[in-house]
Amino acid sequence: MLKIAYHPIYKHPLPEGHRFPMEKYELLPQQLLHEGTCTQENFFQPDFPEEKYILAVHDPEYVRRLKDLKLDKKEIRKSGFPLSQGLVERELIIADGTIKASEFALKNGIAMNIAGGTHHAYTNRAEAFCLLNDQAIGSRYLQNTGLAKKILIVDLDVHQGNGTAEIFQNDPSVFTFSMHGKGNYPFKKERSDLDIELEDGTGDENYLSKLKEILPQLIEETKPDFIFYLSGVDILETDKLGRLACSISGCKERDRFVLQTCRDLNIPVECSMGGGYSKDIKLIIEAHANTYRLAQEIYF
User: Fold this and answer.
1) Angle at 231 (CA atoms; ends 230, 235), nearest 5 degrees
2) Does the pTM of the predicted model rise above 0.70?
3) Is 120 a catalytic residue?
4) Contacts of 161 (CB under 8 A, 6+ apart)
5) Strand partners, 54
6) Annotated active-site residue in 7, 58, 120, 288
7) pLDDT tens for residues 8-55?
8) So what's the pLDDT on residue 49?
9) Which CATH number fits domain 3-299: 3.40.800.20, 3.40.50.2300, 3.30.479.10, 3.30.1360.70?
């Protein structure tokens, strides 16, 4: 059975006019239930993780100041969010969702987190709506508990996974692959193990041909026993922050290829949703929902 991490805190309220679309975290599970892609049985509710799993990735002093709401104004501004206790709790619960989803993926081949993909969070700082790096935390959890040795992070959000790259920059046991917009945020990029930079306006044909050429070869070379997939839908032409030109069908084909490749090679995969900022919320929900529909189709 497909297992999906969801918690009501994912839709934590933000000040009116904030550009981060929190409502998608409530609407997406509603859509999946309404159309019959999922039932309530598919969803599980994460909780607060043990702190040792957070500290396996993040600097203890940073975590302490984050939990105590002691970040300075510059740090808060860089995070993109107004800092609050509820927001910190949300980030911790998202991390636990990815930890638990990774365990379900080991059992069932795949598992998902309605939120997550917080790939801009560094070892010791928050950035761009990301306070804690959920897939980095999940990676370390699997390694430190002996559940996986070699991990591949496939980050297909439109923005480079700069925090993930920094966290694992000197660690050959976690291979970081980011395919993202060359001219997009972050404008000062880190170095992933493999960065594929795409020009503004890249559409379905070029995007998919690059991915289909690179991913199978990368898996063959790195031989991971677990994959974390960041399936951001901000590659859409309609995305306000994206600058690429992929269609809904192209984004769906991207997900189909990644998930089918993992399935064919029998490599467990955890999927975190990442970004999506189209003006029309219906497009965001449709693009994200496709990932879940495909997971059901391919695996179950």
Assistant:
1) 120
2) yes
3) yes
4) 119, 120, 153, 155, 176, 178, 180, 192, 230
5) none
6) 120
7) 999 988 877 676 778 999 999 999 999 999 999 999 999 999 999 999
8) 98
9) 3.40.800.20
